[in-house]
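Quick illustration, no need to memorize.
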Amino acid sequence: MIVRIQVVQKIYQEAHIDITNMFCEDAIKQHIVDLYNSGEITPDLNIFQVDFESISATIVHNQNSVDFEEETA
């Protein structure tokens, strides 16, 4: 028997970083995007919330398959 399972979750992460006070709002946004894209901010990101979205499974037994899916309310 083969079971294929897919879990979908939203993961919220946060990091606390110091940014120079001289930056305007657009420059701060660009600085954060640059840090993220370069991978520099990744070690500082901490998971603080995970929301369950859905789980689905396909059970394959003797070439017949059964599907079910569960979603959050």
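The two ends are 30 Å apart (CA to CA).
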